[in-house]
Amino acid sequence: QPYVLINKQRRTPINYMEQCVMGYGGLRGAVAFSLVSLLDEEHVPAKDAMFTATFILILFTVFVQGVSIKPVVELLHIRRYEPSKKSVNQEVHEKMMEHITAGI
Predict the structure, then answer these.
(1) Which position among 30, 77, 93, 97 has the lowest Cβ density within 10 Å, counted as fewest Cβ atoms?
(2) How high is the pLDDT of residue 42?
(3) Counting Cβ atoms within 10 Å, is residue 47 exposed (0-12), middle (13-18) or buried (19+)?
(4) Residue 15 CB partners (closer than 8 Å, separation 6+)
(5) Structure pTM?
């Protein structure tokens, strides 16, 4: 099973379909953009074409995958995050951090 390592230390395991959705929602081309930006035009004459292709790919993933992620999650019946009630400790900690950052 490919997801054994990911769930080794987790209380609630991430199943294979959830991992597929995580991959589908990915980084949206950040690595590809940084790599194509580092190309030297002297060594790679087609840098402009590669940059354009990478940018189009990033736009595609942002808009098409971004718009379609919710239907994919619903289609695969992936459980969604349900916010739980905060403990007293969490409430006190949040208020303390708000006061500290307001004072800074």
Answers:
(1) 77
(2) 93
(3) middle
(4) 3
(5) 0.56
